[in-house]
Amino acid sequence: MIKKGEIVYGKVTNILGYGAFVSVGEYDGLIHISEFSDNFVRDIHEFVNVGQQVKLKVLDIDEKEKKLRLSYKLLNKNRGVKGEVPKYKIGFDTLKKEMPNFISKELRKEG
Prior knowledge:
The chain is of the alpha+beta class. The protein is about 15% helix and about 35% strand.
């Protein structure tokens, strides 16, 4: 018997615009499109394909209907858009300290 919060492996059986259906043993599961990424998901095929085995986390269970609500993003954070956060210096330097840099930049422009 599967429990809420458990990690399961399932096979993707169908993909629709709003989510992907997964077979997990005797259970049928749905990964809603919002459970693929915290970012905007344009196409679920960027994450999974039909026939693929995937590792998922169980969010909710309907034992009577043998249905699962599943999450992909909780276990697969490495997928999707990757980027680097720019590094900024917070604060400022005094004008006296920065004046040599400013002057050398201006001299390079003139020369």
